Amino acid sequence: MMESWRSAFSVLHQASLKQDSLAGLPLVILTRENVNENEREQQKDLLHLSSRAKQTIAVHSGHFIQIERPDLVIASINETLSTQPAQDKTGLAAKDKGDSPEKFAGTWEGKCQDGATFVVVGLQLNEARLEGTVSIGNMQGDNTGACLMVLAPPVPEHAQRISEPVLKQNVLSFEGSKHADGTFARFELKRTGINKAELRLLGTPVADNPWQLVKVQ
What we know:
The protein is an alpha+beta fold.
């Protein structure tokens, strides 16, 4: 029994190293109510296993959720088995591909190769207009702009407030902070799946090698 558990956790760990390793399969992460912050964050990190992952807090449950909240387990299973809208190869349902600002609202995160978050895009709707911030941590990267190691995580104090947002054909273009020469950092956020997106930083190698983001909230 113990060896089978070790094997299962080993497989899960290897899968967790790759973004969307479950290729968009539905995934419900059940977390017991009275869990410490460290364990809660560890389970939250599992959200990047699938673009269709969600985390649910099992209220009034301890460690054995399947015994104390069988109703929640059954509901979660039924949810993953329920009929899904027809999707194309991008993972977006046909009715979900329009220029809808609501689909962009939320918190998007990008993971570095070391598993740490290095970029966060937070978007909110204000009278049908998107506003928010983009925060990029201090990282070690390669010549394509890919993140190899996070040296300092993104923090709200250093976030760039976005301006001039334009949404067209499922791509949100916006400006970030102002450079010393008077120009602005320019970004493009393109939705590529239900909870997946690509972030381009124009004028840099990231324009051709976009960062992969997952919507976490």
